[in-house]
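Example 9 (inverse folding). The structure is encoded as follows.
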């Protein structure tokens, strides 16, 4: 759900920001209305899934009746209420497109706080168990949704959402999804990769090794969070100045983003190299888990040295409406290199799991090379030909 919603929002954001730079208010509002409508229609698919497919979704993964029952209850409520998630994400993107990222933060923050507060109340005080957790999630998204609508109406005058006589604009929809679909697929590829790595670790090594990887991904999200926040900022900046014909601002934005991203990643590398044991102990790691996790954290984190550049490049491609290049880099990194190399290393070094973790740095080096090639292509085809208006 988040992948489809975010992909639609990214596509709309890139198109909308470029139209703002061109001072083309007709296309600004067209991109916004089409984006919002596409988001609402997308949520209907998940509503239908929640009603008819939630139980089957869990039944194909387990025969534990309790897990199936709890899982079906939770996912059916979350999917049926998904329209609030979609609208909140889309309206956050509208505010990001016009540079009002603080308002976007308020929208996300108030929804998250509502969810956190309601969880213990509905789960324990009202004894609603899993249903309470799901309702807390949906109510939090509902609060975030209405907050986003109100903030856009009051503080985002650049965008005028007028649905009177609305009709889908074929070219606008096509351009939204030309950027959005690759973003959706990238999130899907990430899920497939995580599932596959877990299976390799369990089959060739141990469930403890898979648990180490799960802990790593939880901590990694904090390391990458500043980069993803910066990505949200650079898409509208690049797209706006692309539309306004200001090449020097675009190249300066890219240069600064890569510099800051690399610096952030170097700090993350230092933390993983110096404090791997302390990070694992936050999750009450056993001595056996520490013996696997400490070297794993140190080896995996080597790829952060290159990751900053690759992540920023993916966002640059999306800002220019070339989302398929981001998809190419993601497929090369995760499906063409990381998974095959992981499997080969697992087969060849079953008795040495430390070698297995090298699949991450190897894949990131390939990603760096492919990202650089794609950027050179973008520079020669687009950036080089953008005028530099003052």
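The amino acid assigned to each position is listed next.
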């Amino acid at each position: 759900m988040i992948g489809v919603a975010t992909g639609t929002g990214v596509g709309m954001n890139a198109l909308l920001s470029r139209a703002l730079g061109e001072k083309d208010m007709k296309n600004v509002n067209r991109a916004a209305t089409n984006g919002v409508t596409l988001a609402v229609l997308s949520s209907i698919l998940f509503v239908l899934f929640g009603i008819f497919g939630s139980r089957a979704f869990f039944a194909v993964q387990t025969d534990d009746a309790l897990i199936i029952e709890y899982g079906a209850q939770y996912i059916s409520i979350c999917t049926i209420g998904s329209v609030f998630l979609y609208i909140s994400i889309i309206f956050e993107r509208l505010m990001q497109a016009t540079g009002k990222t603080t308002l976007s933060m308020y929208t996300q923050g108030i929804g998250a706080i509502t969810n956190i507060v309601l969880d213990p109340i509905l789960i324990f005080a009202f004894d609603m168990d899993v249903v309470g957790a799901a309702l807390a999630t949906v109510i939090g998204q509902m609060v975030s949704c209405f907050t986003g609508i109100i903030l856009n109406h009051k503080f985002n005058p650049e965008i005028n959402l007028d649905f009177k006589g609305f009709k889908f604009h074929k070219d606008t929809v096509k351009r939204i999804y030309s950027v959005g679909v690759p973003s959706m697929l990238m999130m899907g590829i990430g899920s497939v990769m995580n599932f596959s790595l877990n299976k390799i670790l369990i089959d060739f090594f141990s469930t403890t090794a898979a648990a180490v990887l799960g802990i790593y991904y939880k901590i990694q999200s904090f390391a990458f969070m500043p980069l993803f926040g910066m990505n949200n900022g650079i898409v509208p900046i690049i797209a706006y100045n692309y539309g306004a014909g200001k090449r020097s601002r675009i190249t300066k934005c890219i240069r600064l983003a890569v510099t800051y991203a690399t610096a952030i990643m170097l700090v993350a590398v230092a933390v993983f190299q110096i404090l791997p044991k302390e990070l694992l102990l936050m999750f009450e790691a056993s001595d056996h888990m520490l013996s696997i996790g400490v070297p794993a954290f140190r080896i995996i984190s080597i790829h952060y040295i290159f990751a900053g550049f690759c992540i920023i490049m993916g966002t640059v491609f999306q800002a220019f409406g070339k989302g398929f290049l981001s998809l190419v880099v993601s497929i090369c990194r995760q499906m063409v290199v990381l998974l095959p190399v992981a499997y080969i290393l697992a087969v060849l070094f079953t008795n040495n799991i430390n070698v297995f973790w090298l699949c991450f740095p190897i894949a990131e080096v390939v990603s760096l090379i492919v990202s650089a090639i794609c950027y050179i292509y973008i520079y020669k085809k687009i950036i080089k030909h953008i005028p530099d208006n003052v």
